[in-house]
Amino acid sequence: MTVTTPKTVPDAPDRKRSLLSRLPIVHQVRQSMGIQRFMLVAGLVVTGLFILTALLAPVIAPYGYSQLRGDDGAFGSQQAPSADHLFGTTVGGYDVLSRTIWGAQTALSVVIVAVILSIFVGVFLGLVSGYFGGWLDRVLVVVCDAIYAFPTLLLAIVMSIAISGGQSSLWGGVFAAAISITVVFIPQYFRVIRAETVRIKSEAYVESAKVVGASNARIIFRHVLRNATRTLPLIFTLNASEAILTLAGLGFLGFGIEPTSAAEWGFDLNKAIVDVSSGVWWTALPPGIAIVLAVLGVTLVGESLNDLADPRLRGRRRVAAASGTVAATSVVPGGAQTAGPAGLGGLESGETFGDDGIETRP
Amino acid sequence: MSAVTTPGADASTTRPAAVLTIEQLDVSFSTDAGAVKAVDRVSLSVAPGEVLAIVGESGSGKTVTAKTILGLLPETATAGGAVILARRDGSDSHDILSLDRKGLREVRGRDVSMVFQEPSTSLNPVYTVGWQIAEGIRAHNKVSKKEARQQAIEILGKVGIPDPSTRVDYYPHQFSGGQKQRVVIAMALVLNPGLIVADEPTTALDVTVQAEILDLLRRCRDEFGAAIVLITHNMGVVADLADRVAVMYQGELVEEAPVRELFAAPKADYTRKLLESVPRIGQRVHGSAEERAKKESLETAETLVEASGLRIEYPGRLGRGSFTAVDGVSFQIRAGEVLGLVGESGSGKTTIGRAIAGLTQVTGGSLTVLGTEMNGVKERHFKKTRQDIGFVFQDPASSFNPLLTIADCVAEPLRIHRRSLGERETRKKVGELLEAVQLPKAFGARYPHELSGGQRQRASLARALALDPKLLIADEPTSALDVSVQARVLELFAEIQREFGFAALFISHDLAVVDLLADRIGVLYHGELVEEGTSEQILTAPRNDYTRTLLASLPVPDPDAQAAKRTRNR
């Protein structure tokens, strides 16, 4: 057989995928299969519901979060579920369903504020610490280790007392919770980004930038930062669920937000402790289930993204033995010097490495 | 091989048939981009005591074929066809593709074993080598620990480990790279399998060690009677060891022939071109008029780099002394001159290149680069000089930021040092640079992973040339490339060097490659420059013993010449 004529390779799927399938989440859903796809889709649906509920709380909640009386007088305490109050009322006389729905809003805002606050500080410190090393690096690592040594919740309690100063309002409460969580989260972002930076620092393309004479700031932000952020979405989702739990924990211990400022699942659970033993089930179950679902949804998304990002963990369909085209990877030796630039395309063009290191040519 | 079996007679009774028969093997991988076929209808057979070399470039399916023989394919792979493996005594044979896990476990080690590419990662660092060899023995035979240990000592002695009864209790890190590979071969031999699959067994080793390991593999065949499937891309190794050669290209078997026949009269077009592109010593004709003219002009050229008594130490761990990578090296690079640095791994050749580029600190002696003394230099003072130095890195895969397009990567030096150019001028210049290295302009819009290794290395050269440097440092620029691609990159390098006229430091472990480009060659050994001279002098009349060993251990890609060389060296 003659090899000089490149084999005709039928067009594989187009390399430039459509915009839709390149969107972060959509891409992963398409990539996944089997149980991984189920986990991801289930997580996405639950998280989507959580976010929608939070955004649309004013529309779907039958009453306000601090509403005690309707058109026909007070709701009454510990009312069993009825047409007026689908999940009954609490010992304080609030509508359980409404407070559960409004609670989603509080939880979401805490997640957003906490993650935004910690992500910027953590990433910046991680980059600087990892890239420059030296005494700054050592001090920051020790400080972060020290923060790890504290129990998260204890730290959050101290922070929330210090920040809110005993006062309670929606944003005061949200920020108190968010900042106390931030303190715990910064070391996590710091660690991940620092580790990536240390790895990338010795990559040839960073050295190549150094040889060219690029400034440190240019190297850090142009070459290191974008390559170091690969794992951030994963920590982001896992931290989000932890944020919800910490907020609920704070509320449950009584350091949360007062019922007049905002609805908060942990606070409601705390108030429902007495009810459980007296046969009133409807005050504890809805906020409890809400916490479980919100955390589960976000965690499922995080875990599946984690699995899908790693080609070794990602499941694939098996292929039939004779299927597929031969990867046109080898190169016909010789000839290019005479063929010139125009001839190169036909000889060796466009190999791409698949995730498992197999070169494929579309 | 040519034994004619009378029809109807059972071949296995008279003489064991092929140890391995591969029939119509297909292997497909499921990837994100859809199914990819790695091996396409390959049929091969290996007779007992025969060395079959499978040659091909990266991605030609040679390693996948080898892994199929041991049933080591990953979960994402699907194989079709048949791989029939016979027992050494011919009493039994199995189709590997249809065996279950238990069956595979029994066959591995007993009928077929494997020697991996990288000896330092194929041994478990927390167990002694004796334990690891005994593990294989005890997995197949019911023997006591003592007996297994005895067998381990015996086999270690046979593969040439000195004082095996003591060293059986050593851990892998206590052996050198070559000895580790010997241990790995001992593990493969201990159960006396009929077939050994060796996947690039010498690629990770230095040339001088490679010669020893090749000798050992030859003994595996001659003394142990094992057949060997040798996977390699090195034609010199093939010429040295193989009886028969199978050439693979794009998953298909292109040609299969006895080794002499293949080298003397390759039939397939591809094989011919592959053989042509293998660099060999003496390929370049020295003493031409052009060369003499250049030599004369170099004598008056200004000195760009001057090292005298250069010493580079890496700080050791606490309580340990520092490690001296380069010790008292002196050399000069004049404008327009190509200096080749040759040496084995750990000889300090890369360290010298990095020191000139200001990536590694000079700790002693003097190194003057373009008028700047590098001993104790501050980054602030050196920054201006950096635009006159280009650097081509070894691994084209990692030397580009994966998130920037090729055009952006090549434009990076211009954006830093030639701010005044403006966006349009920069783009134009990038286009010119890409064309200078024979890449189509349109490739600028691609991302690094969308280019092949050779293309990336050419783009890397374009980036190094962006600022018209006076000095170019190329650190093993072709060692990560396939032979055919390497030939073209080297040609391009020589052409561009003539055109641009920059001085170059060309670092390589391969004397044949350096010979193609260098005006002068320096040979490094354990951080010392043992010999320096014109390429002609170094290659034809080496004065130093080490240089002689280096030249002698380089396998020649010609079976007859290599056989003659082997007997001469013995």
UniProtKB/TrEMBL annotation, chain A:
Keywords: Cell membrane, Membrane, Transmembrane, Transmembrane helix, Transport. Pfam families: BPD_transp_1 (PF00528), OppC_N (PF12911). It is found in: Cell membrane. Its main location: membrane. The chain crosses the membrane at residues 38-61, 107-132, 139-163, 169-190, 232-257, 288-308. PROSITE patterns: ABC_TM1. Residues 333-362 are annotated as: Disordered. Residues 353-362 have a biased composition (Acidic residues). GO terms for biological process: transmembrane transport. Belongs to the binding-protein-dependent transport system permease family. This is Peptide/nickel transport system permease protein. The lineage of its organism: Bacteria, Bacillati, Actinomycetota, Actinomycetes, Micrococcales.
UniProtKB/TrEMBL annotation, chain B:
The keyword Calcium does not apply. Residues 22-275, 310-551 form the ABC transporter domain. Transmembrane segments: none annotated. One of its GO terms (cellular component) is plasma membrane. It is found in: Cell membrane. One of its GO terms (biological process) is peptide transport. GO terms for molecular function: ATP binding; ATP hydrolysis activity. Pfam families: ABC_tran, oligo_HPY. It comes from the Bacteria. It is a peripheral membrane protein. Keywords: ATP-binding, Cell membrane, Membrane, Nucleotide-binding, Transport. NCBIfam families: PRK10419.1, PRK11308.1. Belongs to the ABC transporter superfamily. This is Peptide/nickel transport system ATP-binding protein.
